[in-house]
Amino acid sequence: MRVLVIEDEVRLAATLQDLLELSGYAADVRHDGETGLDDALTGIYDVILLDVMLPKLDGFTVLRRLREAGNAVPVLMLTARSEVADKVEGLDRGADYYLTKPFDPKELLACVRALTRRQPELRNPEALEFGGVRLDKSSFTLSCGQRSVRLSRKEFDICELLMLNRNLVLTKESLLVKIWGYESDAEDNNVEVYISFLRKKLAHIHAKVRIRTIRMVGYCLEEDG
Ligand code: CA
Which of 51, 88, 96, 161 has the most CB atoms within 10 Å of its CB? Predict the structure, then answer.
């Protein structure tokens, strides 16, 4: 699980990072809204902790741009006690949860856990389904009606990620990091090769879904038509 902390109070940001890392999360910190948004848009984070008052871009603008870009990552907003009216505004703009500063570390961790568990039915089913296509987790098969095909481990991992993020754009960078890991030498080219394998297999089972290429960005799994 990777958490992005966007908070300009340097000491608070460092405390949050320590707290998250001690609890087993990987945590990155950005101190302004602009670089924070850039990082959030990579799609590699499972939760984002977002301060409201930030240099360059405020938290509400960061949140709005994230949602406009089709990014559905759970966002926990951190607000000062004097900014309670902001809560209403943030809720309207698609924040998932609020914490008022100063907060109890236990409460923060409870929120992060709740947000990462938000879609249990999508995270741990035996099979994922989308547009008549079924991805079976025990047999590594992709099927549509009576037709089915077995996937390699990498094909399966990529297909799973696409199905969990159906109708959303997955960047090549996020696919690289999530499937191959940070330390790997894999490049964009590896992603393209596996996407082409998956497309052939989708065609083979006459699937009514397709992996659309978003030029210079990444891929999106969507229904035909
Ligand atoms: Ca602030």
Answer: 51
Q: What is the pLDDT of residues 63-76, one digit of tens each?
A: 989 988 878 888 99
Q: Is 148 helix (H, G, I), strand (E, B) or coil?
A: strand
- Residues 157 and 135: their CA atoms lie apart, in Å, by 10
Is this structure's pTM higher than 0.90?
Answer: no
Q: Which residues contact 76 (CB under 8 A, 6 or more apart)?
A: 47, 48, 49, 50, 95, 96, 97, 98, 99, 108, 111, 112, 115
The residues, any chain, with a CB within 8 Å of residue 9's CB and separated by 6 or more, are 51
The least confident of 14-23, 83-92, 162-171 is 83-92
- Cα of 119 vs centre of ligand 1, distance in Å, is 30
| CA 112–ligand 1 middle distance (angstroms) | 19
The whole-number pLDDT of residue 123 equals 45
Rounded (10°) angle between helices 188-204 and 153-164: 80
Q: How far is the CA of 32 from the centre of ligand 1 (A)?
A: 9
Asked whether the predicted pLDDT for residue 120 surpasses 60, the reply is no
Give Dmax over CA atoms of the chain in angstroms.
Answer: 60
Percent of the chain with pLDDT over 90: 48
78 Cα to the center of ligand 1, angstroms: 9
Pairing of strands 209-214, 169-171: unpaired
Ligand 1 centroid from CA 68, angstroms: 23
Which DSSP string do the residues of 92-113 spell out, in sequence order?
Answer: HTT--EEEEES--HHHHHHHHH
Would you say residue 121 has pLDDT above 80?
no
